[in-house]
Amino acid sequence: MFARTTLIAAAALVVLSAVPAQAGMRQPHVVSANPVDTTPHVLDGIVNAFAVVGNTVVVGGDFSAVQEARGTEEIPRANIFAFDLDSGRVSGGFAPDLDGPVTSLAAGPDGSVFVGGSFSGPQPALVRLRVADGSPVETFYAPVYGGGVSSLVRQGSKLYVGGAFIKIGWSLRTALARIDVETGAVDPSFTVTPEGGPGGPRIYAMAATRDRLVVDGSFAALDGLRRPQLGVIDLTTGKVANWHTEVYAQACKPNFPSYVRGLDVSPDGQYFVVVTTGGPFPGTTKLCDSAARFETYAKGDQVRPTWVNLTGGDSLYAVAVSGSAVYVGGHQRWLDNPRGADTAGPGSVSREGIGAINPVTGKAQSWNPTRERGIGVKAFLTVKKGLLVGSDTTTLGHEYHARIGMFPTT
């Protein structure tokens, strides 16, 4: 469908380019299809986000109770909790009371975590919490007004905040801001502004290297430059990069006026993958219900995807790039399905709810653990020990793992 760009030159640049600041853990092999038995269960709602602070996994979403894998006690937790990565034991000391969904997390300094979402307190939509006891870090003040926070990316002393807001603290910012990780003060030198988009601009997902920030969402332009739903920001200048694609300008179904969703950058920073919803359009070049790879350091107005993998009519919401695989999750039934229309087209492969794509060829890999589809996977995180998966369903890899699971490294 799309001509594949040459990858040899890109591979040669790996040693020269910056290492991503927020990419997941590089993994030399595809993870096992058999989930570990220790992860706790979330008993209702949905899991939207993970962060790892030391050996503690912080989990955010829209839920009210959790349970340890080998326990029977229902443990009240209001939209956020933490557990030990090795044992799966739920942290007794970390029990913040957040009155709205958590949609984004990022590890903070000094044993803390940044929490973004649609809650009203202890600060509206964005707060920094101590993982040891769940208390707010008093020196951090960055209340968010006018909308929620959808994505957080920490890069050293700076935190990038994306969402649907109009103000952070005392500063007007539309959907995107850079703030200080210690104080929450908005950086006056970073003013890139998303514009347009149905219902106003919104950032859905972000990922970063040391010198690039990739953003997707419901917008038509960045700082007045046409960037339909996807753009790249040069962090050395704080300006929109000379990177422009029109592939997401094409409309999907009318009930999906914007349709980009998840985004992740490769561990070496050379490429990133975007996943979408939108509906089936077999035999066309539309990127609805797809995963697509783009080269981070491409230039110009005609950037095209290196490859595209279409589900044939089912949404993808989450993506994680490990180097050995591109993990995708949603409520899809198939991958490799460009001619499917809610059907299994010629050459399609069954990948119920979760799958892995070869990062070079763009074709589905043999890894096929399956999961109960539901709404779909909303959170991935690659860690040294495996791949964390968060969703709204209870069956993963043919086993009971309510809303959280982890596939171990092999």
Automatic annotation (TrEMBL):
Source domain of life: Bacteria
Secretion signal, residue range per the UniProt entry: 1-23
Pfam families: DUF5122 (PF17164)
InterPro entries registered for this protein in UniProt: Delta_60_rpt, Quinoprotein_ADH-like_sf
Keywords for this protein: Signal
Keyword Cell membrane: no
Protein name (Swiss-Prot/TrEMBL): PKD domain containing protein
Native organism taxonomy: Bacteria, Bacillati, Actinomycetota, Actinomycetes, Streptosporangiales
